[in-house]
Each structure stands twice: as C-alpha cells, then as structure tokens.
Amino acid sequence: MPEDLVNDEQWQDMLLVFRDHFWEQRVPAFEAALQTQLQGPEQAHAQALKLSLHGLAGVAALVGLPDIGDIARQLEQRWDSLGQADLHILDEIQALAHALHLLKPIAS
User: 13, 60, 62, 97: most buried, per Cβ within 10 A?
Assistant: First the structure.
C-alpha cells in the first residue's frame, strides 16, 4: 500500500514554505497592486492587479484557504468576462483584501 504522502514530513515542510510565501509575498503583492489600481485605474495597473488575483486563486487552497481561492477565481473569471466595466468588481476585490487581512496569521 502506498505511503500517505499528505502526512509525509517532506510534504508538510513544503506546505509550510508555500504558506509563508503566500502570506509574505503573494498577499502583499496583491494588496500593493490593489492600492496602485485604486490610485489610478490605468490599464498597466489593472493587469498587475489581475495577475495578482490569479496568483491568489492558484495558491489559496493549497495553504488551507479554499474559500479565498474560490472567491479570487470567481472575480478573475468575471474580470475576464466583463473587465472593469463591472462597476462592483473593485469593491469586491477590496472586500477580498479585507478578508485576507482578517485571516493573516500573527507573526511570531
């Protein structure tokens, strides 16, 4: 019978690296891209925000935040369909940023 890789120590160590990367790199990059977009909705800024949203969608479930990943993915899909013509999308992206802020682990 194959060894349960989910409980494998090496796998758990890798997940910790992903989790740290998520909180220390992806979330701050997302927050920075959002703030830049809110200050000036230029197309170049919009692409950085969309790329950051895509990064959240791809990694959130892996670090134990599947709901955050689902929300980010839904927002990204709406953005692909409607673009920034969807007047509420930035409000919802801000709500996602707020949720991430509330979920952020306290540094030890």
Answer: 60
pLDDT digits (tens, 9 = 90+) for 32-89: 999 988 887 666 678 889 999 999 998 999 899 999 999 999 999 988 887 766 668 8
CA gap 40, 35 in Å, rounded = 9
Query: Helical H runs in 1-108?
Result: 9-21, 27-39, 43-59, 66-82, 89-103
Distances (CA, A) of 40 to 10, 26, 45, 46, 78: 44, 21, 8, 9, 21
Give the single-character DSSP code of 104: P
User: What is the model's pTM?
Assistant: 0.82
